[in-house]
Amino acid sequence: MKDREIKVAICVLGGCLLVFYGAISYALEIFPYRIVMPPVVAAKAVGELLSIEEYSNDSRWVADVPEKTGMFLKKPGEYESRYTLYVSTNDTTARLLNEDGETLHQWSLSFNKIWPDAAQVNSLFPLDDSYFYLRDFHLYPNGDLLLMVSAGGVTPWGMGLVKLDKDSQVLWKYTGYVNNDFDVAPDGSIYVIEHEIREDKPEKVDEIFLPFLEDNIVHLDPDGQEIDRFSLLDALGQSDYAALLKRIVDDGKGDPTHTNSVRYILDDHPEVSWLKKGYLLLSIRNIDAFAVVDPAEKKVVYAAGMPTRHQHDIELRADGNFMVFDNRGDVHGDDYTRVLAFKPDTQEAVWQHDLDAQGGQMHSKFWGQDQQLSNGNVFIVYAEKGQMFEVNERGETVWAYNTPLYKLIDGTKRVATITSAARIPMDYIAFDLK
């Protein structure tokens, strides 16, 4: 019995040594590297495929399909008559709805036809089109549509921008790790948040996971050609607001700032001197802050923390106040989400709403949007639930729509996450919808 135990121990030790030497030979590319490499790469690819599939499912289809889909609430005379354009994690199709929730027009793309080499995709194996989805858009009056493409389960997840005409023909593409949001200025130029993988520790940052995803602000001309770019981290570090970088924590994810919203300021603010035409308003999610940037000077002119937690979609309203989708503000301790409007200089709250279209509390860990309409109502995107709805100033829901898009996962229908949506004035459309 003792001899048998010795033999077993020798076999186990020998096996461990073989595995160890195999790993060394693979890392250093020494014999038997060529023998070890194929099964190692295959095993890594299989593991990565399973990981990508799991992550993609968990982030793209979160909630169960609701009982009612499509437009399920409409109060005539109380909502603003507009089209609704939205994109989701379901696919790479943008859908334009009428006020009754009927699809009037669609734009679609194939990632692998536009980027056949897929050089920007950080994956050991090719991904078919089902792994890609649309993150953001900008509609032009003539029917051209600028789209931000993302991939589920890979890092970085931003894949690029592509401009389609009204018939979904490609006009141009921009390849880069575009992330979360972009905005189009009146002259047609485009401001994009783009990731770059950075390996050095920035100044005035105490703790950071290396390498990390660095947020850059990239300026493109109307044809998608790069004009300029700069690092937001470096701009903050060189500003009077560098203390905000002390909020960065090493969370082991390598995404310290996660800037998720950029807005081009159209006019000077009548009361706030640091909100000027041509500046950019940014939401920096992971440090719960906003920044105002002069892109011409690559300079942060103002920045501050906000009374929010992991907020999205900062907007400058017509009344001069900020509005954000505050995912995890949780000021009442009930783990709830709210849309919050507040004064930019004093941060005094002027309006908030925390209920979904059915009157239950919103609970949204990621994504979400808000849009003030010309009648004073607010359009809200409850992303994870696949819900879009309009509320009046009293917080009453006057129009609501649940996307019917879903995926069957482990026998359960899970609704697609709405990544971006907007209400479009009917007189803005200058192309044939037929």
Overview of the molecule:
This protein has helices spanning 2-28, 33-60, 111-114, 232-237, and strands spanning 61-64, 70-74, 82-88, 93-97, 103-108, 132-139, 145-151, 158-164, 170-175, 177-184, 190-198, 212-220, 226-231, 259-264, 280-284, 289-294, 299-305, 312-316, 322-326, 338-342, 349-353, 369-372, 378-382, 387-391, 397-402, 406-409, 412-416, 418-425. Helix 1 crosses helix 2. It is mostly beta strands and 434 residues long. Strands 2-25-24-23-22 form a 5-stranded antiparallel beta sheet, with no helix packed on it. It is built from 4 helices and 28 strands. It has one domain: Neuraminidase, CATH 2.120.10.30. The termini are far apart.
Q: Count the E strands.
A: 28
The CATH class is: Mainly Beta
Q: Looking across the biggest beta sheet, what order are the strands in? A: 2-25-24-23-22
- Largest sheet features: 5 strands, antiparallel
- Domain count: 1
CATH fold group:
Neuraminidase
- CATH level-four homologous superfamily name: TolB, C-terminal domain
Strand content: 35-45%
Write a short abstract of this structure.
The chain has a single domain, classed as Neuraminidase. Helices cover 15% and strands 39% of the residues.
Main traits of this protein?
434 residues; mainly beta; Neuraminidase; 5-stranded antiparallel β-sheet; 4 helices; 15% helix
What does the secondary structure layout of this molecule look like, with pairings?
Layout: H1 2-28, H2 33-60, E1 61-64, E2 70-74, E3 82-88, E4 93-97, E5 103-108, H3 111-114, E6 132-139, E7 145-151, E8 158-164, E9 170-175, E10 177-184, E11 190-198, E12 212-220, E13 226-231, H4 232-237, E14 259-264, E15 280-284, E16 289-294, E17 299-305, E18 312-316, E19 322-326, E20 338-342, E21 349-353, E22 369-372, E23 378-382, E24 387-391, E25 397-402, E26 406-409, E27 412-416, E28 418-425
Antiparallel strand pairs: 1-27, 2-25, 3-4, 3-28, 4-5, 6-7, 7-8, 8-9, 10-11, 11-12, 12-13, 14-15, 15-16, 16-17, 18-19, 19-20, 20-21, 22-23, 23-24, 24-25, 26-27
Helix pairs in contact: 1-2
